[in-house]
Amino acid sequence: MTDDRNYSIHAPKASGVVLSQSLHRDFTEFKTSSPPDVVGVVSSSSVRSLRKGATELARYFRREFHYDFVLFSEAAHGSHDKDRAFLYSHEPYLRSLRGFRVVPLIGCVSFRWRENDPPGYALQWVWLHPYYRGHGLLSRSWEYFKVRFGEFTVEEPLSSAMKHFLSKQSQTGKSSPIA
Ligand SMILES: CC(C)(COP(=O)(O)OP(=O)(O)OC[C@H]1O[C@@H](n2cnc3c(N)ncnc32)[C@H](O)[C@@H]1OP(=O)(O)O)[C@@H](O)C(=O)NCCC(=O)NCCS
Fold first, then answer.
1. Could you identify the atom of ligand 1 that is nearest to the CA of residue 138?
2. What is the count of structural domains for the chain?
């Protein structure tokens, strides 16, 4: 029997209040507002409900690219306290998060702290809902990520779309080195 859930992509949801609190906490730490489409910032100390949203998006990433494992987990174990993941939503949820009991999450960009030589940040995975791709979402965040994480690497393997994305960034002088 066919299970239609195997073919559907439902946006996970998170509480508007919890998301808003995560943005506030992040702003307190970094002193600069997160990119325009970002509605939440997840760290190892985030409440489980927020980590759950990122994990569900990581599951879609795994399904689309046929990874053996999910690159994010609800439980924070194995996560460095410097790791940050950015959750995205869309209008009308971008303005007053607290007014919404639940907010749909349509994408996530996950940065990991890597103890390489030299140590630094890496963009480990990014996944946007297909309906919201190609609308400039990642482009609008890119400068912010470069300021925040410095010359971060982008971990392979890269999807075709990501290769094109990075190529466009390098043409416009906004690239980061690739792992
Ligand atoms: C790859 C991804 C993160 C890009 O984010 P996005 O917000 O859709 O990208 P943008 O709209 O900012 O695109 C900027 C530029 O990147 C390039 N680009 C993005 N997606 C592309 C695609 N599918 N094919 C070709 N070029 C693409 C284009 O040059 C585009 O500029 P243009 O719109 O003027 O042509 C997003 O499409 C996505 O989540 N894809 C599925 C998951 C994935 O591939 N993750 C990366 C794994 S390494």
1. 7
2. 1
Say how many C-beta atoms besides its own lie within 10 A of residue 21's C-beta. Answer: 17
Give yes or no for residue 60 CB within 6 A of ligand 1: no
Residue 95 placed within a domain: yes
Q: Which residue CA neighbors atom 5 of ligand 1 most closely?
A: 138
pTM exceeding 0.70: yes
- Which tokens belong to 129? 């809902």
| Ligand 1 atom nearest to 127, measured from its CA | 39
Enclosing domain of residue 167 = 10-171
Is 142 contained in some domain? yes
Q: pLDDT digits over 99-155, tens only?
A: 999 999 999 999 999 999 999 999 999 999 999 999 999 999 999 999 999 999 999
Q: Which CATH number fits the domain that encloses residue 132?
A: 3.40.630.30
C-alpha span between 43 and 81 (Å, rounded): 7
Ligand 1 pocket mutation pick from 62, 133, 142 by most atoms within 8 angstroms of CB? 133
d(CA 35, CA 45): 21
